[in-house]
Amino acid sequence: MARKAKPPTARTVEALRHRREDATRKNIPTAEYQSVLEKEAQDPVRVGYERRAAIFIGPEFGTVTRPDLVVAAREAGDAGFDVLIACAFNYEAHATEFSKLGRIPVLKARMNADLHMAEDLKNTGKGNLFVIFGEPDITLLPAEGGRVRVKVNGVDVFDPSKGEVRSDGPDGIACWFIDTDYNEESVFVRHAYFLGANDPYGALKTTLKAEIDAEAWATLHSDTSRPFDKPRSGRIAVKGINHLGDEVMKVFRVA
Question: Cα 156 to chain center, whole Å?
Fold first, then answer.
């Protein structure tokens, strides 16, 4: 004959409390929550992991293409590297959007053109030999007739000498350009604007050795573009150059 199951016994848990009414800690934690380690031994142990980087160096005279980076990243992955660092003087426009292949991140560093004349130039410490750059900060503004305008808010550039991101506002941009219908192959400058500092109007007038239409110049010396039609490709490319010659470019979708 099967035994009848006993009904469960109700159990209650009470927290132990100090008898003194003026005690600051009322609840007494149980022993398993009390640390038995010395204070110095309670700090977390930091564990370092070795990461290996593969270095890709582009040609002295030439442009690194997206297929070049794909092949280099694949070889880096097959060899067991954790990241690919590409160093080149110039990258094609289509390569700027390539940042990862599988598990391998791809960091693109642009080499300063002064490295072509490294033995002939004096090291002043004012320029960057390598620039790992971010992107221009822009805002798309609606315009009449379904057109759009671009407002550049600044440029973020990574300073490898300090390990910090340097954020410049519009005053830190020497010039910026727009390809209003980017075809993902090459950048065709359709709009050019010159912000600069130290009277760029006078500098341009001296360089061209001619009179400049002040009204026309006002449309070029601006952080906001003239209105333009939405691109048929659905993309625009914006490039900015700061006073150190660091170039940044970003492709934006325009619906």
Answer: 7
Other CB atoms within a 10 A radius of the CB of residue 37 amount to: 8
| CA-wise closest residue to 130 among 188, 58, 185 | 58
Q: Residue 65 has which token pair? A: 């293409």
d(CA 122, CA 124): 6
Instruction: Give the distance from CA 20 to its chain's centroid.
Output: 59
How many CA atoms lie less than 13 Å away from 228 in the CB half-sphere? 20
> Within its chain, how far is the Cα of 231 from the centroid?
25
Q: Say which residues have a Cβ less than 8 Å from residue 158's Cβ, sequence separation at least 6.
A: 131, 132, 133, 134, 164, 165, 166
- 8-36 pLDDT, tens digit per residue, is 666 665 555 555 555 555 554 544 444 55
**Count, residues in the chain:** 255
* Alpha-carbon distances of 47 from 42, 44, 104, 197, rounded to whole Å: 15, 9, 22, 48
* φ/ψ of residue 145, rounded to 5: 70, 25
Q: What is the DSSP letter of 165?
A: E
What are the backbone angles phi and psi of residue 197, rounded to the nearest 5°? -140, 170
- 204, 138 contact by CB (below 8 A): no
Using a cut of 0.85, tell me whether the model's pTM lies above it: no
First to last CA, the chain: 78
**Residue closest to 70 by CA, chosen among 51, 50, 48, 92:** 92
**Cα–Cα distance, 205 to 11 (Å, whole number):** 91
